[in-house]
Amino acid sequence: MRRFHCSMDTTTKSSVVRHIRNLHWNIARILTVVGVMSAAPLSRADDAGQKIVDETRLSLRQQGFKTDLSDFNLSTSPELRAREAVLKATGPNLRSELLANPQNLMEAVGTNSAIVVWKLDWLKRQHLSWPDRGDELTWEEFREAINANQPQVDDACDAILSGPIRFNLNASPGNAMLLPHLAMLRDLTQAFGRRTVLELHDGNLDAAWTNLMAATRLVTAWEPEPVEISHLVRCANTSLAFDAIWQALQTNGWPDGQLARLQTEWESADFFTHLPETAAFKRASDAALCQQDRQGGLSPLPSFTQFVQAAWQSPSLIWSVLKERRDEMNYLEHGSYEDEKALLLFHRDCELELRKAVQAPTWSAMRQLPGVVNIPAFQSKYRSRMQSMLRLHQMQLQVQNERSSLLGRAATAEAQRRLIVAAIALERYRGKHGSYPNTLSELAPEFLKKPPADFMDGQPLRYRPAADGHFILYSVGLDCVDHGGQMPSRERPRLADFRPGSVGALSKADIVWPLPASTAAVEAVRAEEAEAQAQRAGKAEEMAANRQWNYTARHQADVERLLAAPASQNPPDVDYHGRHLSEVLRNRAVSGTKQPTLGEMLTLKQIITGAEPETVTFEIPVSYDVVTKLGRLFLFIDLANNDDSDKGCNVQQMECDRAHNGDCLLVWSTIFESFGKHALQAGLLVNELPPNSRDISGPLLPFTITNLCQFSLSSAHFDPRTGATLHAKLQERNGHYTIELNTTNGALIKTLTGSTSNGVIKVHWDLMDDQGRRFTNDIFNSVFHITLPDSGRSQTLKGP
After folding, report:
1. Which of 230, 233, 462, 658 sits at 20 to 30 Å (Cα–Cα) from 688?
2. In this predicted model, which residue has the larger pLDDT, 570 or 141?
3. Residues 534, 536, 542, 544: what is their CA dihedral angle, to the nearest 10 degrees?
4. Residue 327 CB neighbour total at 10 angstroms
5. Residues 566, 623: one domain?
6. Are residues 692 and 651 in the same domain?
7. Residues 722 and 702 in one domain
8. Contact between 501 and 375 (Cβ < 8 Å)
9. Residue 90 is assigned to a structural domain of this protein
10. Do residues 676 and 730 both lie within one domain?
11. In terms of domains, do 104 and 150 share one?
12. Are 282 and 349 in contact (CB under 8 A)?
């Protein structure tokens, strides 16, 4: 028997041994880590840590501080719950598209006046509408939207006026407690403000008064739960009510009894007393979060197979996972107790600071206290899930708070409250004496117990009568700097205007009860807005036109190669419910007994109508009545010549009409397509066919567009306020044009003339006709007379 020997050199043997050792070592490391990680849940908690937390909680309770969520009873009486049910029933009815775009009830004009909205001929949306991108809202549209949910809002109004408002809540979830009523309360306050304005416009003062009182009581009669966001919503509602009351007091129709009742409501409002309780609830909630974190145990591990595969590919992963797991174990066993104790003491200090702050007589005194302007945030020395949740909650609160502090927002609401009370007292004085007083001191003691002071700096509210019989009244605002009664800018504050942890944007304005803007001032503002909107629209139209022209130019690229390529003249027929599709689509009144192929039926045949070259018509022998039920016909341009982004390539504007004989007419407006030679195809979409056979195309037809200019689709639209932009591209760079704008019955409205040296016509028409009158119809026609001096060509085209 012959024996075979296998030899191996010394280096190879060493390498194999080393590999086997490394393999064993890696396996040992993986098993060690898995064993440690698996044993982790068996570790015992820190009894000493729990003892320290219990002692801290006991000490705080002995000092009168609440430490547990069970200390908070947020349940309400049956009467309050019944009132709550009525309010909540209105929530889903207040989110219409129109009402989600609220009207600004304190739109500034100049530095110290605002627009009396209910006296206008139309309302202005805060955001442009879609698809017309207009900002005009008629009173009829506004009334229709308001009245759509009138019964529910009427019921809510009755409930609000009938007694105090509180919401039945379960405090046990702590930070996770749901507060769905907050959005509803904000929406209701806006709704009552809108209804007030509508009733004022319609002259229904009693109804306006009822809605105004409802908006007021959503501030004065609502006792928020001890949660910071709830108090912030109440402050926001104060601003909404402030604006509505200003609008309402621009009429002299209120009797003294109604004004006195409104004044009493606002004199009773208190924004500070219950603020320290928010820190108490936060203390209990954060402590409960630590307990929940411990009860949740360690984070779930990947499966054994997943971990082994990852560790095998990257052995260093073993130690990082081990370290993270050990850190998490250490936190749950020790650090979590340290954080719970620290949070209990942190929120105790916050509560003490709030107690001291709310006793301050003015904001200028309050902001000197620590933690009022530079808002403290809890910082743990550990990285943990709990710390991440606390940080996320704080970030969300800052966003909801618009980068302001709770005390800053409450101070602003208090300043607005005092302005409302003073303004009502001024109206009562005018009602009795026929004019406003020279100073606020004249209001006391008949209409006020004492002259009103500015909460911001303790000085009297700034007041001065105006020459036109009105007055301006204001507070200096959070910066405590007198800006002379200047309202905030119409522009939103920039990010650079904010300071981290501050009370809000750097204030460069006061809190103002403004003058009513004059008619001339309002018209000037609207003209300025229209000009700015026209400029924005012009830029958008130019971008849209360039996109369209580039899009159509890509269609035409290398069209000669497309037309020269062999193509099937007869697309395969398909089965449609047991019959050939060509048989189903055939117009028997024309074809008789002859059965054309599907390709023949989708062959384009031009029909001369006299509307050429702007409008071209093709007839195809397909039954109009049948095809419009089964699917849709298209006209494709340069279809096979496009990349994926241009897939489809329908012509820019085409309509399918019924011919006298029952065939289909494809009426194509060529003015939006690029000039030159193209390849056209009829396309058919049949809805009920499978996706792979649903789209069918006919044979190619060469076609040349002879128009001297190509129009922009955006030129087919105009804004009744800002005018129309006529946009076109010429075949050559140099050109002269005369544009006739006509009514739909052919009467001349306006003639525009000009020249271009860059091949683009862009003319804005302000809707004024040749006689200086404003065009008010919804549609007009255009005729372009084009002359190209370089080639000597000229043409008259019907434009958009």
Report:
1. 658
2. 141
3. -110
4. 14
5. yes
6. yes
7. no
8. yes
9. yes
10. no
11. yes
12. no
DSSP 579-592: EEHHHHH--HHHHT
For residue 720, the domain's CATH number is 2.60.40.4070
Distance CA 423, CA 263 (A): 9
Q: Note whether 110 and 124 are same-domain residues.
A: yes
pLDDT at 7 over 70: no
What's the sign of the alpha-carbon dihedral 313, 316, 322, 325?
negative
Tell me, yes or no, whether 12 lies in a domain: no
pLDDT tens digits, one per residue of 297-312: 776 666 667 666 666 6
Of 721 and 172, the structure prediction assigns the larger pLDDT to: 172
Look up the pTM and report it. 0.75
Domain assignment of residue 122, yes or no: yes
715 shares a domain with 702: no
Per-residue pLDDT at 226 exceeds 70: yes
Tokens linked to 362 = 């003015």
Cα separation, 735 vs 648, in Å, equals 33
Exposed, middle or buried by CB within 10 Å (0-12, 13-18, 19+), for 310?
Answer: middle
The whole-angstrom separation of Cα 448 and Cα 558 is 85
Final residue belonging to a domain, choices 675, 690, 706: 706
Please enumerate in sequence order all residues whose Cβ is within 8 A of that of 470, keeping only pairs 6 or more positions apart, or say none: 436, 515, 516
Tokens of 56: 């801290």
Domain range for 747? 532-549+711-798
CB burial of residue 770 (10 Å; 0-12, 13-18, 19+): exposed
Name all contacts of 346-349 with Cβ < 8 Å and 24+ positions apart: 346/283, 346/376, 346/378, 347/279, 347/280, 347/282, 347/283, 347/286, 348/60, 348/65, 348/283
Structure tokens at 497: 């205007």
* Between 343 and 536, the higher pLDDT residue: 343
Average confidence (pLDDT) over 372-394: 70
Q: Give the domain-ending residue among 706, 741, 763.
A: 706
C-alpha 506/C-alpha 499 separation (Å) is 8
Q: For residue 677, list its beta bridge partners.
A: 704
Strand partners, 465: 471
Q: Are 29 and 307 in contact (CB under 8 A)?
A: no
Q: Residue 4: its pLDDT value, please? A: 37
What's the pLDDT at 6?
A: 42
Q: What is the pLDDT of residue 319?
A: 63
- Whether the predicted pLDDT of 496 surpasses 70: no
Number of domains in the chain: 3
**Cα 361 from Cα 358, distance rounded (Å):** 8
* Same domain assignment for residues 563 and 690: yes
pLDDT score recorded for residue 489: 76
Question: Is the CB of residue 784 less than 8 Å from the CB of residue 796?
Answer: yes
